[in-house]
Design brief:
With 152 residues, this protein is α+β, with helices and mostly antiparallel strands. The protein has helices spanning 38-52, 59-76, 120-127, and strands at residues 21-22, 27-33, 81-90, 93-100, 130-135, 140-147. The chain has a six-stranded antiparallel β-sheet, covered by helices on one side. The protein is 27% helix and 27% strand.
Length: 152
């Protein structure tokens, strides 16, 4: 049985240390299996990056936002893995990106129906200062930016 250091409820091979690679300007990126339990690894990566950059106050909203972006990639991606990119486009902000191989664009719901699912982007829209999608020939990146000192 594995040890759950982060309290995410994840043990085993994905509960190990975060192995991230610098992408140039302050950023980290990691490719993970398209599985729901990968969200815990992504949250740890985001918390680590924010701590290194002195942006800890963003951690609560950032981990919630990235969890929703990962959930969409797990649900709608077409490949066995996805990539997460955590970058620092400004001194006081972070950009969270999740890249998958589905070309289907995310749709912001209304939140007025009784479905149990499909409300994640409403949460992203409420917590992020900006969010959007970059389309690629082979897929897309859904991203969200959060900044310190800027009300969401």
């Amino acid at each position: 049985m594995g040890f759950d250091r982060e309290g995410d409820g994840v043990t085993g091979t994905l509960a190990g240390p975060v192995v991230a690679y610098s992408t140039g300007h302050p950023a980290y990126s990691q490719t993970l299996p398209r599985e729901a339990r990968s969200a815990a690894v992504v949250r740890r990566l985001v918390r680590t990056a924010l701590t290194v950059w002195g942006l800890e106050p963003l951690a609560g909203n950032a981990t919630l936002v990235v969890s929703e972006l990962v959930a969409n990639a797990v649900d709608h991606g077409r490949y066995t893995s996805f990539r997460v990119i955590v970058s620092r486009p400004a001194v006081s902000g972070v950009r969270l990106g999740v890249v998958d191989r589905s070309r289907a664009l995310p749709v912001l719901g209304t939140g007025t129906d009784d479905r149990d699912r499909g409300r994640g982007l409403i949460l992203v829209d409420a917590l992020a200062d900006e969010w959007g999608t970059e389309q690629y020939r082979w897929g897309k990146q859904v991203w969200a930016e959060l900044r310190q000192g800027v009300p969401a």
